[in-house]
Amino acid sequence: MSDLKKGMCLVITTFHKYASKEGDPQFLSKGELKDLLTTELGPVFENCNDQAQLNKIFNDLDNNKDGKVDFQESSCLCKHKVIMSDLMKGMGLLIATFHKYSSKEGDPKFLSKKELKDLITAELGPEIGNCNDQAKLNEFFNNLDVNKDGKVDFQEYVTLVACITMICNEGCQGKKK
């Protein structure tokens, strides 16, 4: 399994490890979020006894204000660089994968179209990574390159990984039913 796939699996596994403690395994309750933050974040949230702070974090994550945090909403923890132990390993793999390919040519802070193709082909396997159709690759790259600067920065890459991870999570949940 590629490092990118390992990282995505760790993100999914960490979410479900806590989401399945109370009630609906598709969502984090406030109590489950507190457990996740204090256990996985260690020093950053080891004294997460401040109810106001916990409420703010929970409310910030709960985008649709339904009183629970689903997987997609929880992915904001990663986006804001709040990273947990197993999740930290996964995120480390995601970061290392980006730099493994971005440093092959040009500016190491960005992926060129060729570097992105190489990353997708090598890391995501034949199910997702078959990039032999140049027109589809161009369309994919242009959709990913949000700021239209002709290169994919780390934030655009993380968006790609988050979307693929959410699709993988939905597939996993479909198999469990």
TrEMBL record:
Originating organism: Silurus meridionalis (Southern catfish)
Gene Ontology MF terms in the entry: calcium ion binding; calcium-dependent protein binding; transition metal ion binding
Keyword tags: Calcium, Metal-binding, Repeat
Family annotation (Pfam families): EF-hand_1 (PF00036), EF-hand_5 (PF13202), S_100 (PF01023)
Full protein name: EF-hand domain-containing protein
Domain EF-hand: from-to ranges: 49-84, 132-167
Lyase as UniProt keyword: no
Superkingdom of source: Eukaryota
GO cellular component: cytoplasm
Lineage of the organism: Eukaryota, Metazoa, Chordata, Craniata, Vertebrata
The keyword Translocase is assigned to this record: no
